[in-house]
């Protein structure tokens, strides 16, 4: 018996982005736990490189997952590659729940990271390929919202479990990671396959029907369906002529797309927001907040994250990607400079660690009053700017810039870039807090300013254009300079009008305009 298929794009996105919730769960599975007495005692107060290894194990697994995601997705499809990834999540979560030492905990997080590497790269690809051009941003941003909801939910689960005595506190918290994975696995069989992937593997009839069900309530003769199908076919023919293998990521202007997709993901990490997202509990303790106050303060940050990404969900397709990337990087840089400057001017050094018992990862205490309040305020403000700009836009942009033949592997390369730098920063940040303290934020401030210049010079505007139109933005020497590109100006409306005009002419001549049959396309 064939399962019913869901074609409502918003509902499809909600189910698919449970993969993003897995990401969020694993991020904050450590945030609320690392400062608890149970964790510190059981794992012998891990600090510096050891805590960095635990924190960055997720990213290490994600690098591997991202590396295999593209070929895997091209072979079995976007939807089924996500299902395959879920199996590793179940095993990784089981290993974490049963952990007996640091090595086993790292192994479990690496396995979970493998899943996150696949889902973080292929869920945006899947959503970009089923969404209408004018709604693509608001669909793909649901992935970011799912990540943030996962972070918030898991954080407060960890916070609540902190009251459980002994190892049951973190084992219970980590065990709840099974829940979103099970719901995702139950929902995936009801989702349609990507029509662009179906076209790529030669299943044209199914691709046309799926495209029509998504775009036009099943009407295969709808003008938009015909126009979009013709664009897909034109691009596929061009890609067949472009050759195979890794050459296609570098030749004929593709290097520009490869550079744009991979660099925008690298800058998302180098902008330093994850220092706040992962370790706001540390920053709160530096500012003199302890106990429940520090934990709740950190938890509110995650709620703020969701609220402002939710606000951007309403406007993401009305605001240019370039605009948000450039101004977001500058805004985050300003916040980093303020936090670092205040810490440097108004703090005391405690080499033995801050807190009772001392936490070896926190070696400076910001003076109470205005300095401490300023640090907390601008940490929050940095997250607000990040939630409105780089957090959602980097994933959207990286999913948009690739051609049909390179999208799955290209997005896996972009995600791998994200996770390589995530891993590096995960290893660097805890020792950075210990060894260079407040200067860590100055470094990230400089990187943010550099990112803004990079976005201005090398990232053309993709908002409001079909995935096939974005081809023209990277089409060799004739491509416009990035700073001369504007949002919208889609040619799809003109192509739909051309289809309708052609249809009228054929109707007057007694003919019928239709999507070509599979056999006719093979003849072409």
From TrEMBL:
Ranges where the Major facilitator superfamily (MFS) profile domain occurs: 12-463
GO cellular component terms, A-Z: membrane
TM region positions: 12-36, 48-69, 81-99, 105-127, 139-160, 172-191, 266-287, 299-316, 323-345, 378-398, 410-428, 440-459
Membrane topology: Multi-pass membrane protein
Record-linked CDD domains: MFS_HXT (cd17356)
A molecular-function term among this protein's GO annotations: carbohydrate:proton symporter activity
Region of interest called Disordered, as start-end residue ranges on this chain: 504-524
Keywords recorded for this protein, A-Z: Glycoprotein, Membrane, Sugar transport, Transmembrane, Transmembrane helix, Transport
Pfam families, per database record: Sugar_tr
Signal peptide: none
Compartments where found: Membrane
NCBIfam families: SP
Membership in a protein family: Belongs to the major facilitator superfamily. Sugar transporter (TC 2.A.1.1) family.
Name listed for the protein in its UniProt record: Sugar transporter-like protein
Organism, scientific name: Thermothelomyces thermophilus (strain ATCC 42464 / BCRC 31852 / DSM 1799)
């Amino acid at each position: 018996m064939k399962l019913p298929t869901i074609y409502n794009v918003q509902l499809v996105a909600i189910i698919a982005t449970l993969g993003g919730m897995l990401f969020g769960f694993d991020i904050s599975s450590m945030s609320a736990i690392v400062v608890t007495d149970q964790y510190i005692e059981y794992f012998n107060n891990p600090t510096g490189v050891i805590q960095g290894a635990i924190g960055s194990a997720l990213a290490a697994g994600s690098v591997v997952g991202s590396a295999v995601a593209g070929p895997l997705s091209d072979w079995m499809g976007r939807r089924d590659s996500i299902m395959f990834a879920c199996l590793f999540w179940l095993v990784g979560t089981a290993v974490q729940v049963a952990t007996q030492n640091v090595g086993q905990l790292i192994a479990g997080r690496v396995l979970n990271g493998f899943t996150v590497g696949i889902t973080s790269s292929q869920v945006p690809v899947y959503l970009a390929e089923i969404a209408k051009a004018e709604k693509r941003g608001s669909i793909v941003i649901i992935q970011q919202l799912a990540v943030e909801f996962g972070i918030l939910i898991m954080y407060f689960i960890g916070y609540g479990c902190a009251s459980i005595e002994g190892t049951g506190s973190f084992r219970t918290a980590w065990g709840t990671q099974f829940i979103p994975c099970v719901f995702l696995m139950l929902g995936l069989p009801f989702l349609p396959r990507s029509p662009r992937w179906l076209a790529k593997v030669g299943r044209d009839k199914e691709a046309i029907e799926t495209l029509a069900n998504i775009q036009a309530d099943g009407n295969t003769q709808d003008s938009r369906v015909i126009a979009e199908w013709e664009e897909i076919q034109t691009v596929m023919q061009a890609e067949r002529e472009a050759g195979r293998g890794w050459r296609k990521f570098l030749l004929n202007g593709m290097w520009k797309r490869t550079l744009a997709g991979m660099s925008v993901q690298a800058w998302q990490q180098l902008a330093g927001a994850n220092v706040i997202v992962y370790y706001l509990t540390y920053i709160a303790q530096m500012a003199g907040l302890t106990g429940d106050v520090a934990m709740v303060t950190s938890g509110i940050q995650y709620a703020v994250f969701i609220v402002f990404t939710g606000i951007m969900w309403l406007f993401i397709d009305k605001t240019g990607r370039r605009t948000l990337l450039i101004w977001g990087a500058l805004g985050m840089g300003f916040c980093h400079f303020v936090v670092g400057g205040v810490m440097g001017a108004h703090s005391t050094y405690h080499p033995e660690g801050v807190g009772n018992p001392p936490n070896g990862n926190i070696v400076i205490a910001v003076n109470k009053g205005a300095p401490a309040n300023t640090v907390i305020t601008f940490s929050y403000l940095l997250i607000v700017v990040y939630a409105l700009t780089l957090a959602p836009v980097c994933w959207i942009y990286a999913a948009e810039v690739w051609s049909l033949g390179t999208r799955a592997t290209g997005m896996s390369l972009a995600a791998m870039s994200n996770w390589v730098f995530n891993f590096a920063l995960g290893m660097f940040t805890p020792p950075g807090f210990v060894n260079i303290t407040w200067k860590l934020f100055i470094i990230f401030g400089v990187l943010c300013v550099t990112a803004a210049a990079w976005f201005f010079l090398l990232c053309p505007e993709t908002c409001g254009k079909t995935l096939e139109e974005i081809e023209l933005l990277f089409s060799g020497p004739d491509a416009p300079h990035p700073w001369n590109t504007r949002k919208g100006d889609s040619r799809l409306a003109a192509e739909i009008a051309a289809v309708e005009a052609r249809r009228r002419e054929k109707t007057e001549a007694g003919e019928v305009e239709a999507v070509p049959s599979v056999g006719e396309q093979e003849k072409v």
